[in-house]
Design brief:
Strand order of the largest sheet: 4-3-5-6
Structural class: alpha+beta
CATH class: Alpha Beta
Radius of gyration: 16 Å
Oligomer: single chain
Distance between the termini: 27 Å
CATH superfamily: DNA mismatch repair MutH/Restriction endonuclease, type II
Strand content: 15-25%
């Protein structure tokens, strides 16, 4: 799926609860009392038509899909709840590959970030807050 098409489709989710969509796409949120930490990202990928995958290259060929969790502070403003992992890194591969040719840079080039609001540890609901893009041009290195 092209990034512009994905952005338009993802933006239809803003203000909606992602949790029911997990059920529609048969994404497991809880199993044997343990939460599938990647359930929200898997749900977004299924929503966009991407099957489960684990390659290091960007999810959609030329762009990467990420989600980030926002949590309310005491004053009601939102903050990022936890860091966002971009990719797993293999030390041997890192040492052998110039950064300009790395899968990390490939993922950083074009990212779509979906922000969701943390409601409770049980994840009974998951409101989509916003969808944003991040573009890193290789000429800026």
């Amino acid at each position: 799926m092209e990034r512009l098409d994905a952005l338009a489709k993802l933006r239809t989710l803003v203000g909606l609860d992602l949790r029911p969509l997990a059920d529609v796409h048969q994404v497991t949120v809880w199993k044997d009392g343990k939460k599938n930490k990647g359930w929200a990202g898997h749900t977004l990928e299924r929503f966009l038509g991407l099957p489960i995958n684990s390659p290091q290259s960007p999810n959609f060929g030329s762009w990467e899909l990420k989600q980030v969790v926002l949590a309310p502070k005491r004053d009601g403003t939102l903050r990022v709840k936890e860091t966002m992992a971009i990719t797993m890194i293999d030390p041997v591969n890192v040492a052998a590959t110039p950064f300009e040719e790395s899968h990390l840079l490939a993922k950083l080039q074009k990212i779509v970030v979906v922000a969701r609001i943390f409601d409770c540890i049980e994840e009974t609901s998951c409101l989509i807050h916003s969808v944003a893009v991040f573009d890193k041009r290789s000429r800026d290195l």
